[in-house]
Specification:
It comes from Thamnocephalis sphaerospora. The protein has three helices and six strands. The protein is of the alpha+beta class. It has a single domain, classed as Roll (Nuclear Transport Factor 2, Chain: A), CATH 3.10.450. The chain has a six-stranded mixed sheet with strand order 2-1-6-5-4-3. A hairpin with a 5-residue loop joins strand 5 and strand 6. Helix 2 packs across helix 3. The longest helix has 20 residues.
């Protein structure tokens, strides 16, 4: 399950109930899953709006270049990734939700399996304007949740900025 064992760029990822998706949405999912598997390529971000956001429990990225930095960091900090499951939970004109489960090979031969709900929101131009990963299908803490929520938002913002500074994407 090491990064060197990652499938080649042309190999498609298994997506349950993929017939429900349009060809464009299927391509979007394939490119995003490639990012999660360590195959971070500039063309994988073509479906993101320039001002899109990415948010999970660890980080907040503001703008497509910052989002690219998040995936570059994942590819460099995690020894290996394996897609265990991906299925369409909801497909609407403005939103696509996927049930995903990935096994990560961490440092010191530790493994972590992370199930999450990937929520992609689309703008009027059919580009992704927001990408949110809800680990264990739990919503992210927000400032509206009180002090703990506000602290969580500050931590995600700070972590996102650190990743953006430490793992900048190549200039395209």
């Amino acid at each position: 399950m090491a990064n060197a064992h990652t499938p080649p760029a042309h190999q498609a990822f298994m997506l349950e109930n993929a017939a429900e998706l349009s060809p464009e949405r299927h391509d979007i999912v394939q490119k995003i899953l490639a990012n999660y598997m360590g195959r971070v390529l500039p063309e994988n971000f073509a479906y993101y709006d320039v001002d899109a956001t990415f948010e999970d429990s660890l980080g907040l990225a503001l703008g497509v270049r910052a989002i690219e930095s998040q995936f570059i960091a994942l590819a460099r900090l995690v020894r290996g990734m394996e897609l265990l499951h991906c299925s369409v939970a909801r497909d609407a004109p403005d939103c696509l939700e996927l049930n995903v489960s990935i096994r990560y090979q961490l440092m010191f031969n530790q493994e972590k399996t992370l199930p999450f709900l990937m929520v992609l929101r689309f703008g009027e131009n059919d580009k992704i304007i927001a990408h949110e990963d809800r680990w264990h299908h739990q919503p992210l803490y927000r400032a509206t949740d009180g002090f703990i929520g506000r602290c969580a938002e500050i931590m995600r913002y700070t972590s996102g900025k650190v990743m953006e500074l430490c793992f900048p994407p190549p200039t395209h």
